[in-house]
Amino acid sequence: MISKYRVMFGVWLIVLLCSVSLSHSAPLACENLLQPLGHLDLNHLEGRRVLVGGSLSNLTLIDRLRRRDSATASFSSNASTANTNFRRSMLLDNKCHYASYNISLEGSSFTFDNGAVNTTFIRTSCHDCILLSFDVESGKRQHFYLFSRRRQLEQKEIDEFKAQVECLNMPPPVVMDPSKELCPEQTTTIAGGMSDTAHLEKFKTRDSATINYPNASETPITSFTRNFNFNDSCQHLQSNITLEGSGYSFHQHNITVTFLYTSCPDCLVMRFDDESKKPLRMYLFSRRREVEQKEIEEFSAQAGCLNMLPPAVMDPTKELCPDQVSRREEETEG
Ligand SMILES: *[C@@H]1O[C@H](CO)[C@@H](O)[C@H](O)[C@H]1NC(C)=O
Ligand SMILES: *[C@@H]1O[C@H](CO)[C@@H](O)[C@H](O)[C@H]1NC(C)=O
Ligand SMILES: *[C@@H]1O[C@H](CO)[C@@H](O)[C@H](O)[C@H]1NC(C)=O
Ligand SMILES: *[C@@H]1O[C@H](CO)[C@@H](O)[C@H](O)[C@H]1NC(C)=O
Ligand SMILES: *[C@@H]1O[C@H](CO)[C@@H](O)[C@H](O)[C@H]1NC(C)=O
Ligand SMILES: *[C@@H]1O[C@H](CO)[C@@H](O)[C@H](O)[C@H]1NC(C)=O
Ligand SMILES: *[C@@H]1O[C@H](CO)[C@@H](O)[C@H](O)[C@H]1NC(C)=O
Ligand SMILES: *[C@@H]1O[C@H](CO)[C@@H](O)[C@H](O)[C@H]1NC(C)=O
């Protein structure tokens, strides 16, 4: 009997000691868990990541977060913190929503939405993650999101995130379903070079053009959607393609496309040839709305080498088509 009590007492003592040491160390642990990132490495930041989990201080909005199938965050910069592009995509009710912001990194923070959202990078032990704390309208509410290059994290990485959320006294995080589709990445047409005036004039009538690449489930790429803003109305064209070598061919047309070299890090240059390999058109695409002058000049030189007319450069202030994922089949121009 005595030894049983002694054991019981021992257990209670341990529980008591643990809870004492926990209550003492908890604030310290939380302080460690919620440290802003000391140094932001732009190379590490670059590229697209997927939302793995998130929490919100507003219960209405956490329900909306739960309804999201997926979300992504991407950063790109030209190696200057004052000129960084921050893009988000979200798949909600089978529709893709995109947003793009021109941001200026200040230490481990940046603001967007005209200063309404102050975002801070928080330290995380997950090596390919970024952890963002959004302070909306001066503390009215807080969003706390973990993004990773992987769709699914290790348990200990999720546990760390849950502990961080708990430290903030926020509701337990919503953990995203890694099997859900991602929104396609969007690329904007920057400039086009044509071999004939008719096509050049037609190109110039477009206000803007974007390409949505297929989502992650579709590899290799077998189709993409182009959205043209033309005369204030949007056209969405889907094309089926077959990848071949360093390019692809359209199913509906006898046109082959070759990717050409470009020094622009987030661009694509595509050359469109007819059956006899005669260059017809070429396009410069970028994830940014506007590229640098030297990148345009390089593209113009490439068009010149292929005996094309001087390229037309799209107006970056024109509206992009509403970002929708259209699966509709239509005749394409190639
Ligand atoms: C939560 O967000 C909803 C929708 O934006 C808003 O109507 C509501 O007032 C917010 N609740 C609190 C407590 O801030
Ligand atoms: C980045 O872009 C800014 C503004 O367009 C430009 O002034 C700067 O020279 C660029 N930096 C690099 C490294 O290209
Ligand atoms: C992006 O920000 C830079 C620096 O603040 C500015 O020079 C540039 O015009 C902005 N571009 C757009 C498209 O807003
Ligand atoms: C944004 O939040 C950080 C971290 O709390 C703070 O240091 C910074 O001053 C804030 N920036 C603005 C513009 O409020
Ligand atoms: C992604 O691709 C699959 C297969 O083609 C398609 O069923 C799904 O609707 C696509 N999702 C989005 C968001 O486009
Ligand atoms: C552009 O739209 C206007 C008004 O909808 C229409 O009258 C005009 O014919 C259109 N122009 C072309 C080139 O389609
Ligand atoms: C494009 O591909 C889809 C799905 O594979 C198919 O249903 C459709 O018929 C194809 N369209 C054309 C024009 O080849
Ligand atoms: C593509 O070329 C082949 C052979 O030259 C021809 O038979 C076919 O009709 C052409 N298809 C189209 C869509 O022009």
TrEMBL record:
Keywords: Glycoprotein, Secreted, Signal. This is Apolipoprotein M. It is found in: Secreted. One of its GO terms (cellular component) is extracellular region. Residues 1-25 form the signal peptide. Its main location: secreted. InterPro entries: Calycin.
